[in-house]
Design goal:
The protein folds into three domains: about 90 residues, no CATH class; about 130 residues, no CATH class; about 55 residues, no CATH class. The chain has about 300 residues and is mostly beta strands. Strand 6 and strand 7 form a beta hairpin.
């Protein structure tokens, strides 16, 4: 079997342009090839052989003189006979997706959450120093930083993304102090432009200037006495906290006074001791989010 391929240069030209969607030389006219297939195959088979011949550029092949032009389509059309074809190769110009500047957006979001102190840091209670029957809530307004950029196949690691989602910054990030930024989204979409594979990365960071601690009132049904020494089943001694149940004095109808364990949690002083009646409630604050260096995320910011 023989196939003859001859490239035709008629009516083809190239030009340079400042149009931003391609680099270097743009090929305005498609490349064409005259292809003749012998008579030992059917017309349909001859058409496929013409399209797939090794001398005909294939889909996504780069132009031999311009790495920013690739083959978008190849078409074979009969020309004067069932085994004679004009094969048209159409090139598209492209810009490297990695050269696109990152998109950074600053916006905000709001949420309604319970609060336990006023603007002066004082506990919110009724006039008798008790917590409100119905929890008080207020709007929280957080900053949101959204970042989108393209990176090569080594620039996005899904395992690192899984470790960082929901975590706080341990370093200064975009001028924000440690513990103020929470990574909520870090996604990578595998995409292709021409013959090039790359990741489109999307990140979202929420910023709360007060940080992200969890607070609750220090209350309980037992108080801390100190420590005590206990021995396990092997006789090994160890020191553990020593608690006792908080009780209230109760007087019956004949004046007898007994100590009865409280049935509802009462206020504690932050050190495991019962608060005196009328004392201001004490709140404990805990960090529930791990802090990690955001610098290790490799986010492209410029």
């Amino acid at each position: 079997m023989s196939i003859t391929v001859t490239q035709s240069w008629e009516n083809t030209f190239a030009e340079k342009s400042a149009t931003p969607n391609f680099r270097g030389v743009k090929f305005i006219q498609p490349a064409t090839y005259d292809v003749i297939v012998d008579e030992n195959v059917t017309t349909k088979e001859a058409e496929i052989l013409a399209l797939n011949h090794q001398d005909i550029p294939n889909i996504y092949d780069l132009h031999e003189y311009n790495p920013w032009a690739f083959v978008r389509s190849v078409r074979a059309v009969p020309n004067g006979g069932p085994k004679v074809f004009i094969v048209t190769v159409i090139y598209d110009a492209l810009e490297s997706p990695l050269d696109q500047e990152p998109e950074i957006t600053f916006t905000s979001t709001s949420s309604n959450e319970p609060i336990d102190e006023d603007i002066y840091g004082e506990p919110i209670t009724n006039s008798a120093g008790e917590l409100p029957v119905n929890p008080i809530t207020d709007d929280f307004h957080d900053g949101v930083i959204r970042i989108r950029y393209n990176t090569d196949l080594n620039g996005y690691d899904s395992f690192i993304a899984d470790q960082y989602r929901g975590m706080l910054n341990s370093d200064v990030f975009m001028g924000r102090a440690p513990g103020k930024c929470k990574l909520t989204t870090l996604d990578g979409m595998l995409r292709k432009t021409g013959p090039y594979w790359f990741y489109e990365v999307s990140a979202e960071i929420r910023v709360r200037n007060q940080g992200w601690p969890k607070r609750f009132e220090d209350k309980g049904t037992r108080e801390l006495l100190g420590t005590k020494v206990v021995a396990d089943e092997n006789g090994v001694e160890r020191t553990v906290p020593d608690y006792r149940t908080i009780t209230e004095k109760m007087e019956n109808e004949i004046g007898e006074v007994t100590e009865i364990a409280v049935t509802e949690p009462v206020g504690l002083d932050g050190n495991g001791k019962r608060l005196p009646k009328g004392a201001v409630a004490v709140y404990l604050e805990y960090e529930s989010k791990i802090q990690l260096p955001f610098a290790n995320l490799g986010l492209r910011l410029a």
